[in-house]
Amino acid sequence: MEGNGSCKKKKVCVTGAGGYVASWLVKVLLSKGYTVHGTARDPWDEKKNGHLGKLENASENLQLFKTDLLDCEGLSAAIVGCMGVFHVASPVPDKNVHVANPEVELVEPAVTGTRNVLQACLKAGVNKVVVVSSAAANMVNPKWPMDQDIDETSWTDIEYCRSTKNWYCLSKTIAEKEAWCHAKESGLDIVTICPSIVIGPMLQSTANASSLHILRYMKGGREGVENIEFPLVDVRDLAKGIVLLYEKDEAKGRYICSSFGLRVKELVEKLQCLFPDYEYPTSFNEVQHINSWKLNSQKLQSLGWVFKPLEETLKDVVKDYEEHDLFAS
Ligand SMILES: NC(=O)c1ccc[n+]([C@@H]2O[C@H](COP(=O)([O-])OP(=O)(O)OC[C@H]3O[C@@H](n4cnc5c(N)ncnc54)[C@H](OP(=O)(O)O)[C@@H]3O)[C@@H](O)[C@H]2O)c1
User: Where in this chain does the record put each NAD-dependent epimerase/dehydratase domain (predicted)?
Assistant: First the structure.
């Protein structure tokens, strides 16, 4: 991951620095000697962002900037002087929490936010931008052949998302399309990464939406759990993948980032084997789900991306839940 990218080491900006994925990204960047400007809506909120100051090299090389994705001036102040930008911030709702106004709460910050970040990058003369999209922007595609793995040529169907009220997938798909549209018009060098469900230890103090998925399968012994696809990637592998895309000059286009494709029932069986003392679902419902394709990360792997064994991730996830006392709450 060093190689020809070392000339790009200097100052970079990470949007939404205190979030789950971004915190691991900031940690990797600081450990590699980058100076990092992080954006946060409230940098002084200890609960949300206090962990960032404790990262190795943070006291010398991390500076937080207060800004919202809809605040162009705030974004510019954070990005000016940076050679690279990692656009990570975007609303990620917990699927159990009702989103009253999805256009305002999800779509606008994701889409206008992406446009504002890229506009600020252009103004500041940034060399390269890595945009964190999602496999949510690849996978909801009813026209994709059933017998073929999903690769980077697959785009989620926006109209289908609207009709099924799949607002998160809609927000991520329109935001990524916006990024490519902007890059085509402006000539800005961008790469996008599309991770599947991200799991693994948390650096922040409160649990983010995707960290709760596995916890829910280990609590309560529910019946009739939907046996849907559960493609996943370890947050630490994802953070390294994001930096790899930044450092590799040959990285171009979209990159799916997913280590394992398995169904919920298989995942539960693996957890049950490793941790027999928890309360697992007692029955599963087979569903003909639209997301029943496997994701193909070959393009990212061909750049040198590697990932941890599933067992290691699952052990670390459960240890992390215990340390955060999440089984009790
Ligand atoms: N976790 C997954 O399974 C997964 C999978 C695929 C892709 N992704 C993508 O990865 C990125 C990070 O997700 P995550 O799991 O780390 O979620 P997270 O912990 O909830 O972090 C989201 C970040 O976005 C920021 N944000 C949200 N709305 C904002 C707004 N209006 N203005 C400014 N900042 C805003 C939040 O800032 P505050 O701290 O100020 O709230 C937070 O830092 C997102 O782009 C997400 O779509 C995640």
Answer: 12-251
Q: Is 108 in the pocket of ligand 1 (CB under 6 A)?
A: no
Q: Which CATH class is domain 10-200+231-259+290-308?
A: alpha beta
Burial level of 149, CB count in 10 A (0-12/13-18/19+)? Answer: middle
Long-range contacts of 169-172 (CB under 8 A, 24+ apart): 169/134, 169/136, 169/137, 169/139, 169/140, 170/102, 170/106, 170/107, 171/90, 171/91, 171/102, 171/106, 171/107, 171/110, 171/111, 172/90, 172/110, 172/133, 172/134, 172/136, 172/137
**243-291: pLDDT as tens digits:** 999 999 999 999 999 999 999 999 999 999 999 999 999 999 988 755 5
Atom of ligand 1 nearest to the CA of 23: 16
| Domain spans, the chain | 10-200+231-259+290-308
If you measure from the C-alpha of residue 93 to the centroid of ligand 1, how many angstroms do you get, rounded to a whole number? 9
Ligand 1: does its nearest atom lie under 6 Å from the Cβ of 251?
no
270 in Cβ contact with 217 (< 8 Å): no
Q: Is 177 known to be catalytic?
A: no
